[in-house]
Design goal:
This protein is an all-alpha fold. It has a domain of 77 residues. It is built from four helices and no strands. It is flat. Pfam families: AzlD. This is AzlD domain-containing protein. InterPro entries: Brnchd-chn_aa_trnsp_AzlD (IPR008407). Keywords: Membrane, Transmembrane, Transmembrane helix.
C-alpha cells in the first residue's frame, strides 16, 4: 500500500496520521517511559543530549551552507552573519532560544532589506 494507492479525499490525511504520527509517537512514549527511570546525570543521558545537540547543529549548518528555496538566493555571508548575531543574542541575553531566533531572523531580514 502506498500514498497513491487509494483515490479518496480522506486518504492523504489518514496516511499522514498513520505514517507520521503513530510511527513517531511510539518512540516518544518509550522515551518518556524509559527516560523517567534514568538519572539526569547519567552517562547515557549526557550522550543522548550531546548527539541531539550535534544533530541540530548539523541541520543548522546545512541550512546555512547549502540552503534551498528563497534562502538560496541570499549571500552566504548574510546567512552566516545572521546566525552569528542570533547566537550572540542567545548568549548575551540570558540563553533564551526565542531571543536568539528572533535576533537572527531580524538580522537576516534587515540584511535582505538593505541589499
Amino acid at each position: 500500500m502506498t500514498f497513491g494507492s487509494i483515490d479518496a479525499w480522506w486518504w492523504p490525511f489518514l496516511f499522514i496520521l498513520v505514517a507520521g504520527w503513530l510511527a513517531t509517537d511510539a518512540w516518544r512514549f518509550l522515551g518518556v517511559y524509559f527516560g523517567g527511570r534514568i538519572s539526569e546525570d547519567s552517562d547515557v543521558l549526557v550522550l543522548v543530549r550531546t548527539v541531539a545537540t550535534a544533530l541540530v547543529a548539523a541541520v543548522i549548518g546545512n541550512l546555512i551552507i547549502f540552503p534551498s528555496g528563497e534562502l538560496a538566493g541570499t549571500p552566504v555571508g548574510l546567512r552566516i552573519g545572521a546566525a552569528a548575531i542570533g547566537f550572540a543574542a542567545y548568549m548575551l541575553l540570558g540563553r533564551r532560544v526565542l531571543v536568539g531566533i528572533i535576533a537572527g531572523e531580524v538580522a537576516l531580514l534587515a540584511g535582505l532589506y538593505l541589499l
